[in-house]
């Protein structure tokens, strides 16, 4: 095997290893988005509105912890780099927190259950998920400054994230049924899924390498950005502000739409097991689509591919709402939305990484951890608002978890959450993308940064 072949396969292995991090993250994140409210209401016997409120309040704490973790990442000094050490340190606690999340003691009183939900939800989301996800999100910008390679890494990230989502959506309910379809079955299920998450993060840690340093570091200087200056620099970065808004909206959508999927399948389509069909086709198409997105990105640019995905997602949702009573239309809608999500997933994290270079060029400060943690703050607030909104709308609609048949108003509330809120999100994100011009500016920005560092490459 010649050196070129080794380089090629080395790149493939590193890209795959990088993507495994989001596979691990999605073991818990998808479970929280898709099944946690369903588990709380239908198995643990907790009120949807109360749980939604707890989730929203917790996201405020979560957002603050993101900023703190971002600062910690920027100040981490290790032979493994800034971000990678945290993947190794937190993978086992991450798996254990997921087990605790789905282990609400069934014999406890309602008040005691809510206390348990509040503690375990915050332990998982505010502390442990933050401590592993913020470093992982920073890793893309630390591995390379090449915009195309960042897009490819983002594609692998979304490929494996989608594979993680597919794993959860396809096997969670069957495993729960296998273990007895009761509250304890969820605990046993997440013991297995937790081990899978640990394995994914170990591959992520051992298979990647951090290479990028700030321009100041390249000149032989140290750069420890004061917290106040780093935060001020963020708000001078217009593209970071745009992406933070987009991510907040997207994760609000994930929380509302994802959390309603099981309700939509069970109460609108009449078959809970259609969750596997809807999400399975959607995720498989998304995975296949990822293999072709890199060519589109190279030709059209990240912004245009992202916008194209928003349009396709909107079309898919409209088809499902108006013609989704037949299996054929459910499949067609899932295919269109899968392609749309492939476009978005392949580009948005690379776009976040590009804002780091823009911020360094604009302000002189390079803060991968702070940029990603502040983005994370935004999308977790969006996720928390989405969780509360989902609980509120279902409660207003009169949804009752134990009811065999839901009222007409409850069905309307499910449709609003599953279809119409996502469509509103896609339209707003399209408007934001009208003001994104970084794709055209990026080559000049990198050239200027290299000139500052005395890099003649």
Structure overview:
The chain is mainly α and 457 residues long. The chain has one domain (15-210, 225-452): MFS general substrate transporter like domains (Growth Hormone, Chain: A), CATH 1.20.1250. It is built from 16 helices and no strands. The chain has helices spanning 3-42, 48-75, 84-101, 110-143, 147-178, 183-206, 215-218, 227-234, 238-268, 274-300, 302-323, 327-345, 348-363, 368-397, 408-433, 438-452.
Cα distance spanning the termini: 28 Å
Biggest sheet character: none
Q: Looking at the structure, what is the overall shape? A: globular
CATH topology (level 3) name = Growth Hormone, Chain: A
Indicate the CATH class.
Mainly Alpha
Number of domains: 1
The helix/strand class is mainly alpha
Query: What percent of the residues sit in helical stretches (DSSP H or I)?
Result: over 70%
Strand composition percent: under 5%
Tell me the number of strands.
0
User: What is the correct CATH architecture?
Assistant: Up-down Bundle
Low-confidence stretches: 1-6, 216-222
Summed over residues and divided by their number, the pLDDT gives a mean of 85
Number of distinct helices: 16
Architecture blueprint of SSEs:
Blueprint: H1 3-42, H2 48-75, H3 84-101, H4 110-143, H5 147-178, H6 183-206, H7 215-218, H8 227-234, H9 238-268, H10 274-300, H11 302-323, H12 327-345, H13 348-363, H14 368-397, H15 408-433, H16 438-452
In short:
The protein has helices at residues 3-42, 48-75, 84-101, 110-143, 147-178, 183-206, 215-218, 227-234, 238-268, 274-300, 302-323, 327-345, 348-363, 368-397, 408-433, 438-452. The protein is mainly alpha-helical and 457 residues long. The protein is globular, with a radius of gyration of 22 Å.
